Amino acid sequence: METRRRFPPPSCTSPSPASTLRSLPAAPRSSGDRIQASDALPIPIRHTNLLFSLLFVCSIVFLMRRWRDKVRESIPLHAVDLSELVSIISVVASLIYLISFFGIAIVQSIVSSHEDEVDDFLPDSKMTPSPAPSSDLAMPVLAGREDEDIIAAVVAGKTPSYALESAIGDCHRAAEIRREAIRRISGRGLDGLPLEGFDYGSILGQCCEMPVGYVQLPVGIAGPLILDGREHYLPMATTEGCLVASTNRGCKAIAESGGAASVVLRDAMTRAPVVRFLTAARAAELKFFLEEPTNFDNLSVIFNRSSRFARLQDIQCALVGRNLYMRFCCTTGDAMGMNMVSKGVQNVLDYIQNDFPDMDVISLSGNFCSDKKSSAVNWILGRGKSVVCEAVIKEEVVKKVLKTSVSALVEVNTIKNLAGSAIAGALGGFNAHASNIVSAIFIATGQDPAQNVESSHCITMMEAVNDGKDLHISATMPSTEVGTVGGGTQLASQSACLDLLGVKGACMESPGANARLLATIVAGAVLAGELSLMSALAAGQLVKSHMKYNRSCKDTSKAASN
Questions:
Q1: Which of 22, 51, 444, 513 is 20 to 30 A from 78 (CA-CA)?
Q2: Is 383 exposed, middle or buried (0-12, 13-18, 19+ CB in 10 A)?
Q3: Per annotation, catalytic residue among 240, 297, 395, 463
Q4: Can you name the residues that pair with 363 across neighbouring β-strands?
Q5: Residue range 417-423: average pLDDT?
Q6: Of 170, 390, 448, 463, which one is the catalytic site residue?
Q7: How far apart are CA 77 and CA 67, in angstroms?
Q8: Check whether domain 142-216 has CATH 3.40.30.10, yes or no
């Protein structure tokens, strides 16, 4: 959910565009405002840390040597001269600073670890709490009432449908009552939509609101995919016949050729708020401020305090008139991380507001992110995990398993995936059907299906190698957005699929390793799917394969009899 937040205009006159950055008046702080890091430091934080560390070590060494000499000369240790007194004060002062800077963050992360894990993965709507309902809308406790009475109240509009779970205290019963109320209001039943056999409590407040059932979706297994020396069996949730079989054939060709290899080029989730100033020159001042390395170090401290896993990497700015778009890039551990980065960005905006009181925050998301939309910025700079996967398919495998030739594959890929996509004006779509595989694995493993848009950005390359005998194929995917914790990944079915891939939950030894591995698996699956479909096209077998695997004989006979 994109939030829009306006600040009241400052009471003082806005500074002129020509004023320098350091001459900006600071916004007044109330006593209840939290003091931000580095507010009172005259030098950058990293230099301050180094200074106090050196002061602590030097003072300790000096005192140890003086006390050693006193012991040797039988001088009482409590007889302290001026130099020793200064050293003792230096040790205490530097120790207090170092404990305050490093210790509080560690203790805070331990104490609030559970809260972080919950908040980081809540839906975006949780970022801005809804106003509390007025007293006249307060819900009575309905647990003791009959179902028929509650249904009648929902149909009459006296009881809000969204409040049934909290009012009844039974998620399954609430779904059943809501389902019946919908049937009576709409006059249409939901007989084909199953109700039983699902834990509705597991989605309360995080995955889906006002449930009335669940959709059954078959999950097929393709593989094994040999990737980086390991076997992976791919769970694919789909209703498209031939998709799993085709991907499985690609996995077989890769396995018989020695497997595929992958590399993660970058890991950075993004969020890009947009702010506005009175003039473009004033907006440019903030842009220069954010691009200053020392200021970035300070902002990193503010941003990183929002979560145990969020680590700010970069801020990319784009100026349009008097509007400034700031694209924050950060690592997010094993979470996909949209809520995590949003929290960090909000903290940074609050901090910047102190030095730029005339800044008007238009939206926490200004579409420069860019989330759930096909965009050049994601295609060029990447978002989430940027992955490349490659394999060399032997000539005999191309002929035996894929039923085509290396030259035919290279030709079809050039004319179709590269030239054809260019004519179509494709943006990130220089492939045969990457979104097919991405969507199937996303749904099976509890990812956000809407992020299939940018996650399916892929360019498939094919070249003849080894004197034209073998085929080198690669899939480059710059914006694969996946996570192994939070959201739908914790549901029973999706969790089982993640467990099958060996990436269930968070990696305690190396935070983010499971999510990166999942991204490489997705890219490997896309490589297999591309290889098989392109082979079918090169061999002229596409229609034949779909008629075989995507048409039910039972349905065909019924259609014929009708």
A1: 51
A2: buried
A3: 240
A4: 274
A5: 97
A6: 448
A7: 7
A8: no
Catalytic-role residue among 70, 126, 372, 403: 372
pLDDT tens string 253-286 = 999 999 999 999 999 999 999 999 999 999 999 9
Global pTM reads 0.75
| H runs (alpha helix) in 370-465 | 376-381, 395-400, 406-412, 421-424, 434-445, 452-455
- The residue extents of the domains of the chain are 45-104, 142-216, 219-267+384-548, 273-363
How, if at all, do strands 429-430 and 274-276 pair?
unpaired
| Whole-number Å distance between alpha carbons of 406 and 234 | 26
- Over 90: is that where the pLDDT of 128 sits? no
Average pLDDT of 520-546? 91
Our answer to whether residue 448 is catalytic in this structure is yes
Which of 3.40.190.10, 3.30.1490.100, 3.40.50.1470, 3.90.770.10 would CATH assign to domain 219-267+384-548?
3.90.770.10
Residue 258's contacts (CB-CB under 8 Å, 6 or more residues apart) are 226, 391, 392, 394
Backbone angles phi, psi at 42, to 5 degrees: -80, -15
Fold of 273-363: Alpha-Beta Plaits (3.30.70)
Q: Where are the beta strands (DSSP E) in 16-170?
A: none
Residue 116 annotated as catalytic = no
How many other C-beta atoms lie within 10 A of the C-beta of residue 278?
A: 16
Close Cβ partners of 227 (under 8 Å, ≥ 6 residues apart): 259, 260, 261, 262, 389, 520, 521, 524
Q: Is 396 a catalytic residue?
A: no
User: What whole-number distance in Å separates Cα of residue 262 and Cα of residue 525?
Assistant: 11
Active site residue 172: no
pLDDT tens for each residue of 287-313:
999 999 999 999 999 999 999 999 999
CB neighbours of 463 closer than 8 A, spacing ≥ 6? Answer: 410, 471, 472
